[in-house]
Amino acid sequence: MYFPLFITTVLALIRASTAEIVESFHDVHAKDFDFVIIGGGTAGNVVANRLTENPGIRVLVLEAGGSPDGVLNISVPLFCTRATPLTPEDWNFTTTVQPGLNNRSIAFPRGHVLGGSSSVNFMAYTRGTSEDWDRYARTTGDSGWSWNNMQKYFRRNEKWMVPADHRNTAGEFNPAVHSFTGINSVSLAGFPWPVDSKIVEATRQSKDEEFHFNLDYNSGKNLGVGFVQSTIKDGARSSSATSYMAPQFSNRKNLHVVLHAQVARILGTSKNKGQTSFDTVEFTDGVGGSTIRVQAKREIILSAGTIQSPHILMNSGIGDENALKELGVKAVHHLPSVGQNLSDHNIITSFWSVNAKDSETYDLMERDAAVANEFINQWEKTRTGPLVDGIFNTVAFVRFPPDSDIFKQFPNHDPSPGPNTAHVELIPMNGILRPPIPTSGHYLTISVALLQPSSRGAITLRSNNPFDPPLINPNYFSNDFDIVLLREGVKAARKMITFPGLDDYIIAPFNNNATTDAEIEQFIRNGVATFSHPVSTCAMSPRGADHGVVDPDLRVKGVDGIRVVDASVLPFTPSGHTQAPTYAVAERASDLIKSQWRI
Ligand SMILES: Cc1cc2nc3c(=O)[nH]c(=O)nc-3n(C[C@H](O)[C@H](O)[C@H](O)COP(=O)(O)OP(=O)(O)OC[C@H]3O[C@@H](n4cnc5c(N)ncnc54)[C@H](O)[C@@H]3O)c2cc1C
Ligand SMILES: *[C@@H]1O[C@H](CO)[C@@H](O)[C@H](O)[C@H]1NC(C)=O
Ligand SMILES: *[C@@H]1O[C@H](CO)[C@@H](O)[C@H](O)[C@H]1NC(C)=O
Ligand SMILES: *[C@@H]1O[C@H](CO)[C@@H](O)[C@H](O)[C@H]1NC(C)=O
Ligand SMILES: *[C@@H]1O[C@H](CO)[C@@H](O)[C@H](O)[C@H]1NC(C)=O
Ligand SMILES: *[C@@H]1O[C@H](CO)[C@@H](O)[C@H](O)[C@H]1NC(C)=O
């Protein structure tokens, strides 16, 4: 009996000392939770980490997806395009039929895994501009969301690191605007390609004001061309799962994370004063599929992202009362803005064939498994080589001047938050990554993204079954300004490749032979994809406003017990990618929660 007892003791010790990230709620040995966090994604993991800094506070995280550990298509940066769509780590959503896209319905990837979309995204680290954040402060009436006030939250999140090749990066970024002490790693490219410096030099020499060199697009002003900063640590993806949920945090005895736990709804009880108080979360456990209810003693934190946070609110009876009733969902609290105002960036991709050697673009790797395997071996052994970076190392943020064609066509319509913020983002990539992969040749890709869409859409319920995916309607190009802006963006990309130093690299357009404005617009309607930056479906608005979903402290308007903390609360898209803003929102939210509960 001695031996088995010994083994049991060792097992018990291992369980007590390893991460409390479990596959089933039945493995959670605690009963009382101060906070229940719905979604172990980008934002949810930040809040879980910060609240459990206090050992007296017990937190439960319910995440529908599994673990990203050991998934090569997630951890290898250059494989980021393989992590979605239609993989075990994707929710596999598609949009509704989009009239603006010639009736196409397009893939709408979202991370279905611990770390959420930070585990599957393309890792670009962009904070938006000071004008973006000052607009958030203005529209919410809360100066706490201003650029200056948010700096401390960007800094808590960011841990700047040297890139995988350990080169001297002086002149590639401005250290004064970065933090070396945060939790989530950020670095410059660790395997720069010849085309990267070609692009930066050609634009630097061009003397075209739109394409001036910008040392650091995260300094508050994003205009110009510069080097991309990415959430990459030592050549591998840094997500909220690998950073905020690293073992030194997930080992905390007061933190419990359950994977494969899909939340259906939140339940409340009506109080005498008429304000409903929500304190119970209903979810399906991945093991056995049983329905379980847990209670939060203090608050429920809804961090299911821009698509599912409003979905869960509506399934809980919080939304437009008539729309809910029509589908047979009992309305508990009339809040018509839930799911409305969906705002998403979209992106159009052009290819050119180029003069390059096999080793100078990533085309060969895409069509030759032997080459790819060599790179994988190198990556696995040393975390160096072509796989250590995401799919773009340089970027151009371009603003159209007041006398440009677009503003002649749409006078008095400028959706940007101010004069120092770009309208479009141009993203050069060193080859073709998306099927069909050409069987020969070398390529340059430039994607163009719209940064401040004037079109707004909505997330609505498909049925009263909470496990049915919601209807996702971004309403792309329902406002004509957007397609004209993107068309001018395509022209800006075409201009960029004519600069001396790039012109002799380019051979010919590969997929973009459209010439007239009308043809370019058709090319866009037929080819545009989501840039995967949806926001605004649980938007912040001033306290007492007749629209909006959450107050500036992120508490759901008109009910007690629920706070939304994720990208959905941003009332406008930032003028860049959305993960850094989401991390910063979650860092500030953690402070707001701690201060309200004095913890
Ligand atoms: C393919 C792709 C590429 C991108 N590229 C970039 C980029 O390069 N740079 C950048 O800055 N941003 C990028 N983004 C956007 C960025 O990653 C997101 O804006 C950000 O991660 C959103 O964070 P979030 O916390 O709001 O949601 P998420 O990180 O998506 O977290 C939501 C979490 O909730 C879970 N969940 C949802 N519903 C339920 C439920 N019912 N029950 C339990 N759990 C649930 C999900 O599984 C997920 O883990 C990209 C996104 C995608 C999808
Ligand atoms: C990784 O992505 C590649 C390319 O899409 C795919 O063929 C492969 O099956 C993926 N690997 C896993 C383990 O899912
Ligand atoms: C998405 O599709 C993939 C491939 O078919 C599948 O393995 C995965 O389970 C799907 N994701 C969800 C959330 O159903
Ligand atoms: C899109 O569908 C609508 C409704 O069926 C139809 O009227 C319209 O002509 C279609 N548009 C295109 C470009 O096919
Ligand atoms: C959408 O957002 C705008 C701008 O913040 C606001 O004026 C409007 O009321 C919102 N609409 C809804 C339905 O919330
Ligand atoms: C332009 O490209 C499209 C799509 O690749 C192709 O079908 C068409 O024939 C091309 N037109 C010309 C004039 O080359």
Keywords for this structure?
binds flavin-adenine dinucleotide; seven-stranded antiparallel sheet; GMC_OxRtase_C; 26% helix; 15 helices; disordered N terminus; 599 residues; eight-stranded mixed sheet; binds 2-acetamido-2-deoxy-beta-D-glucopyranose; alpha/beta; single chain
> Which class of secondary structure composition applies to the elements?
alpha/beta
Q: Mean of residue pLDDT? A: 95
What amount of the residues lies in strands? Answer: 15-25%
Shape: globular
Explained architecture:
- It is an enzyme of class 1 (oxidoreductase).
- Residues 1-19 form the signal peptide.
- InterPro entries: FAD/NAD-bd_sf (IPR036188), GMC_OxRdtase (IPR012132), GMC_OxRdtase_N (IPR000172), GMC_OxRtase_C (IPR007867).
- It is found in: Secreted.
- The chain is of the alpha/beta class.
- The strands form seven sheets. Strands 1, 2, 3, 12, 13, 14, 15 and 27 form an eight-stranded mixed beta sheet that branches.
- Strand 2, helix 2 (42-51) and strand 3 form a beta-alpha-beta unit.
- The chain is globular and about 75 Å long.
- The chain starts with a helix and ends with a helix.
- One 2-acetamido-2-deoxy-beta-D-glucopyranose binds at residues 139, 337, 340-341, 547, 571.
